[in-house]
Amino acid sequence: MKAKSFLSLGLLLIIVLLIWGPLWMMVTGSFMGAQEINEMIGPVFGNEDKMAGWHLIPRFPTLKPYVELLLDSPNFFVMFWNSCRQVFPGLIGQLFIAVPAAWSFARYSFKGKKPLFILYIVLMIMPFQVTMVSSYLVLDKFRLLNTDFALILPNIFSAFPVFIMEKFFKAIPGSLIEAAKIDGAGELKIFMHIGIPMGASGIVSAMVLGFLEAWNGIEQPLTFLKDRALWPLSLYLPEISKEKLGAAMVASVIAMMPAILIFLYGQKYIEQGIAASGIKE
Questions:
Q1: Contact predicate 126/254, CB 8 Å
Q2: What is the pTM of this model?
Q3: CA separation (Å) from 244 to 56, 216, 240, 251?
Q4: All domains of the chain, ordered by start, with CATH?
């Protein structure tokens, strides 16, 4: 039994190292000077014969890469603002579209409900490459290509948050809904005062996952945005050259921070949502 426990612990440790290794390289690399970081991973980008390596801790820590990016690279701030401008309106729109849709699927019975929900699932599991051409043609027809709305509108009408939130709304005990109806509460009041508060975990979970997907999106901006002035932060790193590896590490750290902070904030709601999904009447 002890051997099995040690084996499991060793396997988990290897997985943790594989996950945290790149993150540690990214953070420590952001404090390395240009010469040091080029010595470490320069062979990956050049034709040098020596092997690439990495120092666990920078030998000569410096804030120069941060100064170079934050003070000498105005394009970085433009792309950071583009990401905020393209991601957050889409998430707000999901609250007005996906939340009522998920509530309807969870609490009401209507003709064609099952086929329609299956259609939502099919749309959710389809990769972007499958719907890319049709989405491009629709956006082109409405003259929305090369605008922020080319990313905002598809995000607003995404099927993924509906699928996630429907499970949480469905877990609300039906007896509670019936009790509210007996007390004279209307459908809107039940939705606002029972559905949304008790389904808050699912709503926040969907918003957190939706943010992570939209914030890190690459294919959609590349397909729908031709003007480089509209590019989001996720397209900044491919523009980094070998001479600016330090700035690339800093950009990665800064781009990662909003995602980490939002995930840490929403983690407790995700855990509550998992517990709520197990409620039985």
A1: no
A2: 0.81
A3: 20, 21, 6, 11
A4: 2-62 (no CATH), 70-276 (1.10.3720.10)
